[in-house]
Amino acid sequence: MAAYQSQAVDPNVTPLDGMRPAAGVTELPTADGYVATAAHPGPP
């Protein structure tokens, strides 16, 4: 989900040489929010 939001906010995925981007990859709507339910708590 974080990768989706990153692409929606600032499109940064580029196709390989000689290939076309997937349809709609540069026109993704942004999410209203993002909740990570199994996030790592960080360093002890």
Give structural notes:
With 44 residues, this protein is mostly helical. The protein has one domain. Helices cover 18% and strands 0% of the residues. The protein is built from one helix and no strands. The mean pLDDT is 87.
Question: How many discrete structural domains?
Answer: 1
Task: Give the strand tally.
Answer: 0
Mean residue pLDDT: 87
The string of secondary-structure elements, in order, is H
Instruction: Tell me the major beta sheet.
Output: none
Which ranges are low-confidence, i.e. pLDDT below 50, for 5 or more consecutive residues? none
Strand content: under 5%
Instruction: Give the proportion of residues in helices.
Output: 10-25%
Shape: elongated
Whole-number radius of gyration?
14 Å
State the separation between the terminal residues, measured CA to CA. 26 Å
Task: Please tally the helical runs, counting DSSP H or I stretches of 4 or more residues.
Answer: 1
Structural class: mainly alpha
Features:
44 residues, mainly alpha, elongated
Ordered list of secondary-structure elements with their pairings:
Layout: H1 2-9
Summarize the structure.
18% of the residues lie in helices and 0% in strands. By secondary structure, the protein is mainly α. The chain has one domain.
